[in-house]
């Protein structure tokens, strides 16, 4: 009966090794690469990694090569369906053409998050991220 209980630990990644994966990190970066290895802390090793940025209906890629990701920074990990990968209705452009738009979006989001944190701190008594009580 115990064999029917699904893995809920890093052991569940065993089926993902040698497959193309999408990894979303806490800082918002989106990486695609082949999962080569992992450990009990869900630290990941990606090979042939590319970082993707998006803006409206276009995207750009920057080759990053071999990438080691600390497990605590992973927000999402998912397999990329190779049959449907090319059917995405997005147009690829050069990294340099898209990077200024992406940086502006990141800065705008950071500003909004800081404003939200300040309001929650002043009106509701929430702790600011990285402040007292946020350590682990």
Automatic annotation (TrEMBL):
Keyword Cytoplasm found: yes
Taxonomic superkingdom: Eukaryota
GO process annotations (BP): deadenylation-dependent decapping of nuclear-transcribed mRNA; mRNA processing
Compartment(s) of residence: Cytoplasm; Cytoplasm, P-body
Domain Sm: 8-83
Complexes and interactors: Component of the heptameric LSM1-LSM7 complex that forms a seven-membered ring structure with a donut shape.
Classification via CDD domains: LSm1
Keywords: Cytoplasm, mRNA processing, Ribonucleoprotein, RNA-binding
Protein's name according to its UniProt entry: U6 snRNA-associated Sm-like protein LSm1
Molecular-function GO terms, alphabetical: mRNA binding
Membership in a protein family: Belongs to the snRNP Sm proteins family.
Cited function: Component of the cytoplasmic LSM1-LSM7 complex which is involved in mRNA degradation.
GO cellular component, one term: ribonucleoprotein complex
Keyword Magnesium: no
Pfam families reported in the protein's UniProt record: LSM (PF01423)
């Amino acid at each position: 009966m115990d064999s029917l209980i699904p893995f809920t630990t890093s052991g569940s990644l065993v089926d993902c090794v040698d497959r193309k994966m999408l990894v979303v990190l806490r800082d918002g970066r989106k990486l695609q690469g082949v999962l080569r290895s992992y450990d009990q802390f869900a630290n990941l090793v990606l090979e042939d990694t590319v970082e993707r940025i998006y803006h409206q209906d276009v995207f750009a890629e920057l080759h990053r090569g071999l990438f080691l990701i600390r497990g605590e920074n992973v927000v999402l990990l998912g397999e990329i369906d190779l049959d449907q990968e090319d059917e995405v209705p997005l147009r690829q452009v050069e990294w340099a053409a898209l990077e200024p738009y992406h940086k502006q979006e990141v800065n705008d989001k950071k500003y909004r998050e800081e404003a939200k944190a300040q309001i929650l701190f002043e009106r509701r008594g929430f702790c600011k991220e990285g402040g007292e009580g946020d350590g682990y």
